[in-house]
């Protein structure tokens, strides 16, 4: 198995198109055509993790956080990032990061967070914008079913919990080919007006090349007429954060003790208690202060995230409880999820969970 084969599976788990624009995901170091000896899955690809990969004969490290986030002008080993990169290159170890590609997935970081707490009826807190596109094309009735099914197979027509969604309508199309044309119906130079079927389907934007390939491969026209539009609709199954609820409400202090135990947090910083029971819970693994207003708008009783600053605790304004459980802690089960996913998709292959604790924050 080559590294690129593992990457194919990883991109099924967390498509790179789901990542935020500011992020740096995918293959960061290494040659995708190299054979894979084993995969080590970690939270952060630090130097001690690269040492662990060497010791365990793994020439691919899959990390949650990208060790290369911003550009490097020099690689001299002067800091922890450069030392990790140098060691990986010297030992021919590939590094692949998933980060916000998995953050935004409906089964990703925040669903893992919710599942750890036992939340039910979960949904995306901030649905992703500018991710849905619409294809409109036209064909003869005899070609409609074959073409539409090919578009479905390529990933078009998925809306929430439904698949194979489309709209078709019938009308009349006209054309007149020049002397170099080869029309499906009629002759060059002949004006043709005949029945046509209009097909409309939506798709996720990263599937566009696949959708167009299916369109051109299964259409009967010499010149395929089609239109693609970017929609303003939010994608309800892709986005940051998640909100869910408990079957039974819980006292605020009991809730925080529960979270501390479940997420193995060294400590929890929180805003003033509201005096209201906790039933509806919003979560966002990692740095999530930007989503405080979204949690309030969704009617959450509490918002669990990390890296909150002093003044951001004021933003609770008595409307909900804000709790900072720690960056690493809020994402701690992510690497376990990646290992489980890869093990199911690539059985009988060395997929190893890193034993290194890369949390830089310590508690007394």
UniProtKB/TrEMBL annotation:
Binding site for a divalent metal cation: 65, 103, 327, 331
Protein keywords: Metal-binding
InterPro entries: DUF34/NIF3, DUF34/NIF3_bac, DUF34/NIF3_sf, N-reg_PII/ATP_PRibTrfase_C
Keyword Metal-binding: yes
Pfam families tied to this protein: DUF34_NIF3 (PF01784)
Presence of the UniProt keyword ATP-binding in the record: no
One cellular component term from this protein's GO annotations in UniProt: cytoplasm
Recorded superkingdom: Bacteria
GO molecular function, one term: metal ion binding
Subunit structure, interactors included: Homohexamer.
Family of this protein: Belongs to the GTP cyclohydrolase I type 2/NIF3 family.
Annotated NCBIfam families: YbgI_SA1388 (TIGR00486)
Protein name: GTP cyclohydrolase 1 type 2 homolog
Provenance organism: Flavobacterium alkalisoli
């Amino acid at each position: 198995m080559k590294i690129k084969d593992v990457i194919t599976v990883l991109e099924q788990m967390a498509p790179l198109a789901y990542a935020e624009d500011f992020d740096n995901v995918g293959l960061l170091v290494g040659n995708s055509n190299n054979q894979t000896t084993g995969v080590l899955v970690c939270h952060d690809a630090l130097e001690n993790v690269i040492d662990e990969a060497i010791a365990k004969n793994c020439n691919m490290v899959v990390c949650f956080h990208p060790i290369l986030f911003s550009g490097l002008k020099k690689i001299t080993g002067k800091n922890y990032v450069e030392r990790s990169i140098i060691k990986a290159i010297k030992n021919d170890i590939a590094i692949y990061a998933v980060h916000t590609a998995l953050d935004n997935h409906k089964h990703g970081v925040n669903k893992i967070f919710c599942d750890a707490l036992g939340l039910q009826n979960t949904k995306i807190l901030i649905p992703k914008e500018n991710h849905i596109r619409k294809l409109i094309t036209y064909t003869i009735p005899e070609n409609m079913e074959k073409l539409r099914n090919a578009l479905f197979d390529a990933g078009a027509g998925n809306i929430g919990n439904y698949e194979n969604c489309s709209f078709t309508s019938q009308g009349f199309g006209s054309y007149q080919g020049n002397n170099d044309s080869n029309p499906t119906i009629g002759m060059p130079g002949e004006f043709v007006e005949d029945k046509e079927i209009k097909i409309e389907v939506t798709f996720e934007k990263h599937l566009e090349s696949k959708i167009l390939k299916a369109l051109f491969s299964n259409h009967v026209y010499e010149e395929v007429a089609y239109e693609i539009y970017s929609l303003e609709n939010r994608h309800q199954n892709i986005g940051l954060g998640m909100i869910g609820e408990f079957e039974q409400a819980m006292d605020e202090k009991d809730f925080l003790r529960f979270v501390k135990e479940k997420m193995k947090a060294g400590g929890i910083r929180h805003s003033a208690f509201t005096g209201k029971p906790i039933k509806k819970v919003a979560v966002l693994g990692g740095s999530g202060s930007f989503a405080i207003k979204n949690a309030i708008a969704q009617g959450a009783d509490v918002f669990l995230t990390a890296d909150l600053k002093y003044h951001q605790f004021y933003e609770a304004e008595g409307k909900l409880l804000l709790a900072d459980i720690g960056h690493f802690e809020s994402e701690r089960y992510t690497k376990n999820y990646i290992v489980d996913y890869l093990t199911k998709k690539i059985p009988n292959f060395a997929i190893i969970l890193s034993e290194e604790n890369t949390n830089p924050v310590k508690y007394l």
